[in-house]
Design goal:
single chain, 9 helices, 272 residues
Length: 272
């Protein structure tokens, strides 16, 4: 590790240690440059924002190999040069697609270097405004403490937000202007549902087929409704057309009880 990078990391650790020793608040933000641009938040629930071309390239490649999800085509969210490029790489063999993506993103990152750094800082500022209140909403709504205390947010130039429910990581589009906290609420709800219901063999959810589970998981985000604003910036309307009727039924039931555990059971029976 280069010396300058080591100094940055040590400075953050020393600041935290000093704060504990003197009963002062720990620093709220640290900027770390370790081959990628990263912002680390230090609080009860934390998030780390990472801008990394390699992660971004993985998102482009994975989307090109699976160009749609439950009937939703990713190309519908692309425009201009990005749309033309995506239509090209979906036709290529995997190795060729990877090479094309790497070249395409290298040029994009070089051209937009300053813009991407500014966007990273702006995303951090907007998330910070409502992050803790969003954490509280998720806990109250699901009736469980957050499964993760630390979240990793990868920024991407592709309009898709995949997640990893094993480590609490997910993607946010670097160009996104509004509804940034909605992305966290949406993915955070997935994390709660997967880890407290899907992975719990005592629940009906654990017995669902993969396809039905995926449908219910996405449809349940309908509870991020007008009553969730704030912390949400706006109600979650969903992005999969085939889920709309299911979302309407789930939302009507949610309005009656506001009991997430009961809603999951209702959802399982609805899909049966």
């Amino acid at each position: 590790m280069p010396a300058a990078h080591a100094i940055v990391r040590v400075a953050i650790v020393q600041a935290e240690t000093a704060a504990i020793a003197t009963n002062l608040p720990t620093p709220s933000r640290g900027f770390v440059f370790l081959g990628v641009f990263a912002i680390i938040r230090i609080m009860k629930y934390r998030y780390k924002i990472i801008l990394d071309k390699e992660r971004d390239a993985w998102n482009w490649f994975d989307a090109s190999q699976k160009p749609s999800f439950q009937g939703c085509s990713w190309r519908n969210f692309l425009h201009n040069q990005d749309l033309e490029f995506f239509d090209n790489i979906v036709k290529l063999p995997p190795q060729n697609a990877k090479q094309k993506i790497n070249h395409y993103l290298t040029e994009k990152y070089n051209t937009n270097k300053n813009l991407f750094v500014e966007r990273t800082k702006l995303i951090d500022e907007k998330l910070d405004e409502k992050f803790l209140s969003a954490c509280k909403w998720l806990e109250k709504t699901t009736g469980h403490p957050l499964f993760f205390h630390n979240y990793i947010i990868y920024l991407t130039t592709f309009p898709r937000s995949p997640y990893d429910a094993e480590n609490g990581s997910f993607f946010i589009n670097i160009y996104k202007q509004n509804g940034l906290i909605n992305v966290f609420l949406h993915e955070g709800l997935h994390f709660q549902f997967i880890n407290y219901w899907r992975n719990n063999k005592k629940t009906l959810v654990s017995q669902m087929s993969k396809d039905k589970f995926e449908t219910l998981k996405e449809a349940l985000t309908v509870i991020i409704d007008e009553d969730a604003v704030p912390p949400a910036d706006y109600p979650d309307k969903g992005y999969i057309a085939s889920h709309q009727k299911i979302r309407e039924s789930l939302h009507a039931e949610w309005k009656k009880t506001h009991n997430f555990d009961a809603l999951t059971e209702y959802g399982v029976k609805l899909l049966e």
